[in-house]
Structures are given as C-alpha cells and as structure tokens.
Fold this sequence. Notes:
binds 3'-phosphate-adenosine-5'-phosphate sulfate; P-loop_NTPase; Sulfotransferase_dom; transmembrane helix; [heparan sulfate]-glucosamine 3-sulfotransferase activity
Amino acid sequence: MRRVQRNFLVTISCFLTIMLLIILLPNPAEENDWRGHDEDSFTSLRFLSPFLRRRDHQGLSKGNQTTCYRFLRYHPEELLPPADLSARNCKKRMPHALVIGVKKGGTTAMARYLGLHPKVSFSTSIQPGPDITDATMAEWRETFRMTSSMQMSVTGYPGLFNDMQPQLLLMLRNHLPADIKLILMLRDPVQRLVSDFVHTSTIVDRFHGEERKKFEQLEGFKGTLNATVLDELGHVNPFASIVRLGLYAIDLQSLYQQIPEERVLITDGNAFSKDPFPILVKVERFLELPPFFQRFHFKYNKKKHFYCANIESRPDVNCLNSQKGRKHPEIADGLVQKLYDFYRPHNRELRKEFGLNFPWIDL
Ligand SMILES: Nc1ncnc2c1ncn2[C@@H]1O[C@H](COP(=O)(O)OS(=O)(=O)O)[C@@H](OP(=O)(O)O)[C@H]1O
C-alpha cells in the first residue's frame, strides 16, 4: 500500500514539475528584445516541444505584437496604424545581421524564412553603394522596412561576399554595429554556376540591340554555357566572373581579415534547399534569438520540390516564386566533369583552411 502511495506521489510531483517548467519557461515571443533571454534554457528544453508548440501558437499572436506590420494571405504586408507603430517604437534600424551571399546560394529563401521569426525584421533592401558614406548609408537605411524595439533588423545582398566585398568591408569598419553578425550560404559551386547562367539567360532575353550587348558584356555572358565558362583552349576560365564567384576560399580569406570567424556563420546552401528547418535552428542560435522555428513550420511541396513555409500567423509567406528553383538544363557530362575538376582543389581549401566540410567539397 505504501509503495502505491509513494509511486503516486512521485508521479504527481513529476507532473507538477513539468507543468511548472512550462508555465515558468519564458515565452520566446514575450521577451523585451531579441537578446533578453537565457538561450540555454530553451535549447536544453527542446524535448518539451509538443508543449512549447502549443504555447508557440498562442504566443505567436502575442509575438506578432513585436512586429510593425499586419500579414494577410495573398496581400503584401500592411504597416500598422501610427499609434501602434509608436507604441512598438517602430523605425528603420541599421542591421545587426547581414546575409552576404553567395549569389544563387539560396539567400532569398533564407531571407523569406528567417524573416518569419517574430523577432526578426528582414528587409530586402536596395543594394548599397558603390560609394559607402554616411549619406549613402542613411539612404540605404531608408530602403528598409520598419523594425520594432523588440526585433532584430536583418538584411543582406547576395553579392556582398564577392562582387561587393570592398563595400562590405567599409561598411563593417565604419557604419555597422561592432557586434554585427554575418550569414553566408555556400552552395556547390558547379550548381551555383549553372543556376547563375540560367538566371542571366532569362534576363538577357528582356534586352534587345545595343542594350543587350551592354548587358551581355557586363555579365560576361556569351550565349552558351560552354562559351561563357571556357577559354579558347577549352579550359575553365577562372577570370570569367560566373566562374570566379565560386572560388569561395579566396573571398573567405579576405573577409576573415576584417571580421573574426565567430561572427560569421557559414551554412550549406545545398542542405538548406533540401530542408531549411535544421539550418534555421542554427541561424536562430547564432543570432541569439529565442527558439521559434519548429519542424511543422515547413512542409515539402511535391510540385515545387522544395519546402515551403506553413506558419499560421504568417499567411503571406508560403513557397518562393517561380524565379527560384528553376529547372536546370541538361549539360554535357564532359563540361560538368571539367567544372568539378576545376573547383575541387578550391573546395578542399575550405576544409583545409576553414574547417568546413560540406558533402559537395570532394565531388
Ligand atoms: N525553398 C526554396 N524554394 C526555391 N528555391 C530555393 C529554396 N531553397 C533554396 N533555394 C535555392 O535558391 C536558389 C536561388 O538562390 P538565391 O535566392 O540566392 O538567388 S539570388 O542570388 O538572390 O538571385 C535556387 O536556385 P535555382 O534552383 O537554380 O533557381 C534554389 O535552388
């Protein structure tokens, strides 16, 4: 009889402890700013996710009180009335994190999905520069969306890692918060290159005559993939800009001369396109945001062959538009092999010099 009583008491106290934890656990959506939380308590309690998930649904509507917008299905976001904006201290704020590329690395998907976090205000801002001054930076900030005092302002531009690294370095030195963090998505450079080529081919068709010639010259576009990436001897041309953008180790080396490694998160764009959830969790931790993303927030779409967002409080975001995830053309095996042979030693530098170990490094 005593044993039964003792078991009963143990069960009851376990139940009460769990309930207490759920009640006392700070709700990610209710913090005062994106950093005001004990991250480890969340991380170690992820096993409570079925309970948190329920809280998350309720919390999310509260969490939306952190934003400056109203979100409706099939509509662009709507700015809240002025009284709400001033209550939430909404303004255009300089970013505390930047997604810097690479071009075609999956930056748009990262921007759209990371921007679903209630404590993130992701601006798809206009590209800054080429001159980086107080005035151009102020203009740049004007292109941002509103960010409340409880949110982290995040923006980025896919070319910042390569084409615009000089501008990025100036921005880091003189204009951005000292604790700024960078997110870099690296994708298999051969896939990146093909994606870039497909993208440029679709844009080229919008131009005619002289305009088209100018654009082709600017992009180094020569009609076919062969002509664009190979030199007269049939070797991969490292000076073709579309090829050069995939030499990640070179750009990473110069980036790390300006910013400590611990302030840069490098993620695998290939892995992200297959499943964004685990990488978003890493990004959340890196940015010291309260955990928000859950597995059920992303559903695989058989038609798109990508995961699309599925978050009740953000009916405005689902799949990316048809300009992302385009079908790649068939490429002769010989050319594919040449490209992999060309990139392999450069990829291996990523492992040797920076300890990165993505599955595509040795392809
Ligand atoms: N969820 C989801 N939906 C659609 N597409 C996705 C997604 N996640 C990653 N991707 C990959 O993103 C690639 C485009 O990269 P970017 O957005 O960086 O391109 S850009 O530089 O901003 O033009 C795009 O490249 P392509 O497939 O060549 O179009 C996709 O492979």
